[in-house]
Design goal:
Distance between the termini of chain B: 14 Å
Order of helices and strands of chain B: HHHHHHHHHHHHHHHH
Strand content of chain A: under 5%
Oligomer: heterodimer
CATH class of the largest domain in chain A: Mainly Alpha
Helix content of chain A: 40-55%
CATH topology of the largest domain in chain A: Cytochrome Bc1 Complex, Chain D, domain 2
Helix content of chain B: over 70%
CATH superfamily of the largest domain in chain A: Cytochrome c-like domain
Largest sheet of chain B: none
Strand content of chain B: under 5%
Structural class of chain B: mainly alpha
Number of helices of chain B: 16
CATH architecture of the largest domain in chain A: Orthogonal Bundle
Number of helices of chain A: 5
Order of helices and strands of chain A: HHEEHHH
Number of strands of chain B: 0
Number of domains of chain A: 2
Number of strands of chain A: 2
Structural class of chain A: mainly alpha
Chain lengths: 148, 460
């Protein structure tokens, strides 16, 4: 193969192929950006969801957990925690979250530990709202089952 | 050494290796927390360890690339570096900023660090790999821009080769895509989508251009093969990188709220992503077969071959393993992802830095014919310790991933085990992983030791 291809041909493949790849990717990106608001139900992003996302970021939650499968793999997936531990009920999920966040770290020897983040109750509610919104994103049927 | 300004590469190489030692130590600590959850808790929680582990990796690779560039560009351009002073200043700025950021991670809780650095003015923190405070990110931009200026000016004023132009293309791409780190929309899906513009388009596009250029440079020097021939291979490799790698970003868009067509496009395009890595193996072995000179620095050539082979294993084989959407549906976000991440970063990027260090360091230390046979023997041992250690820990993580998928992902809702229960069954596998991690660290120490093997003065 290498004998038949000259340097100029290889160069043309690089420039031609590269530009083609950039155009295809840019086009698909453009289309995705148009579709994402609908797929993610952007209309449901309330002020509380935005605040919850900031709390998620400011405490580096993604340093242990995954969210929609991305993050660290040390602690459970939280994209569907609303369904898994809140039975898809907002009030019971929020009260679960209040209890859970307050009781960290759990006193179970050698279990992986979650730190105490000292969040105010309304911050925990914001975080819950963020996770509830996330759980409704269209993820192409992922994860395979409720365990995430 | 042909140009005295190449000397600025030396501190970059040394500091990159020091950071690598830190990176591995933090990795080992994390691997112990995987087994004993109370280890060092609450002094250093897992998320902090991981942040340091991964950030050290990114920074050490940037230092390595910078050192490699400063060594390579004067030789390619056939002139001194545009400003050796600027290269020295940026080294110290980057070092101080890097060390301060790591200390920030370790000394105060993350939320407090966000407050201290006024993250609310332009929030960019708290996203995987991009945890750095906004001010550090601005610092990275300043350092990278001054580095680009220095390299570009040198190339403009000197000889332009295919290698230096492709290296510059990769570096400009690196700088451009980092700017997406400053875009953090409120919509998590948009946030994730453009987050990959930094992460994927670094490691599976622009960095591959840098990797290709560095590998080509070392092969030109060590084999003496005609540039016409080497350039042709380099163009083919990076052509495949862009053709497969750009649309290949789609393999990250499967399940994060992006349109469904990415399941097809991401699968098809990323199935081709192993090709450039396979071409790198053919490239390296072909050049070595056709070599016209016998360089005494045998280790540099071994590292070059190793980069091509282990890069292909980690990025190509381990990447392909879970890149097709129907497979990724089960593997997404499991230990299999971690397995792939470890071997690909090591094989492709850490090993190309070793290749450059092993090629350039002896010359920078006044040994134009490479280290003596004894030092190279020690280095060869370090090579195998690190390579076998990394492959071992990758296999352990692969086993952990497959078991996790079997217990947690494949069964239906009624029979699937919870995440925590699944993890509890994997302890033995995590012990094996840690042991291989120790082997990698022993390999790095051996590598350091090879620097201190006594050198008899030989008449030149």
């Amino acid at each position: 193969m290498s004998e038949r291809i000259t340097k100029d041909m290889a160069k043309n493949i690089y420039f031609g192929g590269g530009i083609f790849a950039i155009l295809v990717f840019a086009g698909l990106t453009f289309d995705s950006v148009k579709q994402i608001p609908e797929l993610s139900h952007a209309e449901n992003i309330t002020e509380s969801v935005v605040l919850g996302k900031k709390i998620w970021e400011n405490n580096n939650c993604v340093g242990c957990h995954t969210l929609l499968g991305e993050g660290a793999y040390y602690a459970p997936e939280l994209g569907n925690v609303f369904q898994r531990l809140g039975s898809s009920d907002e009030a019971s999920f929020k009260s679960y979250m209040q209890g859970w966040m307050a009781s960290q770290p759990l006193n179970i020897p050698d279990r992986r530990k979650m730190p105490q983040f000292h969040l105010a109750p309304e911050q925990v509610d914001n975080l819950a709202d963020f996770l509830i919104w996330t759980s409704k994103v269209n993820t192409q049927e992922w994860p395979p089952n409720i365990q995430g | 050494m042909k140009y005295s300004s190449q000397m600025v590469a030396k501190p970059y190489f040394i500091f990159a290796l020091v950071l690598l030692a830190g990176e591995i130590l933090f990795g080992l600590t994390m691997s112990i927390q995987y087994i004993y959850g109370d280890f060092l808790f609450p002094a250093i929680p897992f998320n902090v360890l991981r942040m340091v582990h991964v950030n050290l990796l990114i920074v050490l690779l940037l230092f390595g690339f910078m050192g490699a560039t400063y060594y390579l560009i004067p030789e390619e351009a056939e002139r001194e570096l545009w400003s050796p002073l600027l290269a020295k200043i940026t080294f110290w700025i980057f070092l101080v900023a890097g060390v301060a950021t790591i200390l920030g991670y370790l000394l105060v809780p993350y939320a407090e660090l966000a407050q201290l650095t006024m993250n609310e003015l332009w929030p960019t923190m708290g996203r995987e790999f991009l945890e750095q405070p906004t001010i550090t990110k601005v610092g990275i931009v300043v350092v990278v821009l001054s580095y680009l200026l220095n390299v570009t000016m040198t190339v403009i004023k000197g000889r332009k080769t295919t290698i230096s132009i492709i290296l510059l293309t990769g570096l400009f791409g690196l700088a451009f895509f980092f700017l997406f780190a400053f875009y953090v929309p409120d919509n998590l899906v948009m946030d994730k989508f453009f987050w990959w513009f930094v992460v994927h388009l670094w490691v599976e596009a622009t960095w591959e251009l840098i990797l290709g250029a560095l590998l080509a440079f070392v092969l030109v020097r060590l084999t003496g093969v005609d540039r016409e021939h080497i350039d042709k291979w380099l163009y083919l490799i990076i052509a495949m990188t862009l053709i497969a790698g750009l649309a290949g970003t789609g393999h990250h868009f499967f399940f994060i709220g992006a349109p469904g067509y990415w399941l097809w496009i991401g699968s098809i395009a990323s199935a081709a992503e192993p090709i450039p890595f396979f071409l790198m193996i053919l490239f390296a072995y072909n050049m070595i077969k056709n070599r016209r000179i016998q360089d005494d620095n045998k280790m540099a050539l071994i590292w070059a071959k190793g980069t091509a082979v282990v890069g292909f294993l980690g990025a190509g084989v381990w990447g392909f393993m879970h890149t097709l959407a129907p497979v990724n549906y089960y593997t997404h976000g499991t230990q299999l992802t971690a397995a792939h991440g470890h071997l690909s970063f090591f094989g492709a990027y850490v090993m190309i830095v070793f290749t450059m260090v092993s090629y350039a360091m002896p010359i920078l230390r006044g040994r134009p014919h490479g280290n003596n046979a004894k030092a190279q023997k020690v280095e060869l041992a370090s090579f195998w310790l690190m390579v076998i250690g990394m492959i071992g820990l990758t296999l352990a993580l692969t086993v952990a991933g497959v078991m996790q998928i079997e217990m947690q992902r494949i069964p239906d809702a009624a029979n699937a085990m919870t995440f925590m229960d699944t993890q509890a069954t994997l302890t033995a596998v995590y012990v094996v992983r840690s042991l291989f991690g120790v082997m990698v660290f022993a390999g790095l120490l051996t590598y350091f030791a090879s620097f201190f093997v006594k050198h008899e003065k030989v008449a030149a």
